[in-house]
Amino acid sequence: MKYSLFILILFVTKTFAIGDTYFAKKAYDQSDFESAKKQYQHIMIHDESHKADASYNLGKIAYRQKEFEKAERYFEETLHSNDLPEPLKKQALFDIGNSQIKQKKWQEAYTSFEDFLKIDPDNEYAQKTIEYIKKMIEEQKKEEEQKNDKKEDRQDSQNKENQQNDEQSENNQNSSENSENKKQSNQKESSKDKSSDQKNNEKKELNNESEQKNESQNDSLKSNESNEKDNKSNQDNQVNKQQEFNKNQQQQSASMTNASQEKAQDNKTDALLALLDKTDMQSSKKLLKSQLESKMQKKYGEKNW
């Protein structure tokens, strides 16, 4: 009874496994890769006997979807499966190499195709592929050498640039230090100049104050002298005016006295002349007249007389 139940379970399991494999292959052929992946993943978990086929087919799906790194992993898993048939082993090696070529993993691809040619040495496609891989490895080496040369050139250039930058930085630092020292020196000189200027200004201010005081004193002295001169001049003017006034008074008084005397003399002369005319004394008259004219000429001058 137990044996019969085991046979039944085994039969059902195999039936489901065959069914999963069938539907997975059908989905793959129809390019329904998502459904196919689900079916093959289910087989890998529940059917150990078809695990290698499921893993290989998952690798093919990943390769078709351009997921070459994932495809390489699935093919590697297939290759390490137990009791792997020879044809599947060859195909897994071949597809591993192709997945590595797509990733430009040339050295790994060369190793994979070497292993493949050990199994199938007459495969022309594999032979051509491995020659192509050799060329790509040589080109890769050249590119790497060029990259290394460029890298070395860049490194040399970078080192030179760094050296120049260091020298420039050092020069800038020295220049900055010199500038700072010069600035400090200028500040000291400026401080000294300011101090000297300040002292000079203070001296100038003191001199100006002294000069202003002296000028003020001189102005005061000049003003006093001017006032004294003005007072003296006024006094002199007043004295002169008083003297002139007194002189004028004296002259007027003398003139009035002279005029009075002259008038009295003239009156006497006129009376004498009248007397002489009346007496008709010719000789006396002439004598007196001569004396009188002589006297008048002396007094007034010949012309005025």
Keywords:
305 residues, mainly alpha, Serine Threonine Protein Phosphatase 5, Tetratricopeptide repeat, 8 helices, rod-shaped, disordered N terminus
Question: What's the SSE blueprint?
Answer:
Blueprint: H1 2-29, H2 33-46, H3 51-64, H4 68-79, H5 86-102, H6 106-119, H7 124-279, H8 282-300
Helix pairs in contact: 1-2, 2-3, 3-4, 3-5, 4-5, 5-6, 6-7, 7-8
Describe the structure concisely.
The chain has 305 residues and is mainly α.
- Oligomer state of the chains in this structure: single chain
| Second rung of CATH, namely the architecture of the domain at 2-150 | Alpha Horseshoe
Shape: rod-shaped
Gap between N and C termini: 212 Å
CATH topology of the domain at 2-150: Serine Threonine Protein Phosphatase 5, Tetratricopeptide repeat
Helices and strands: which structural class? Answer: mainly alpha
Number of helices: 8
Major sheet characteristics: none
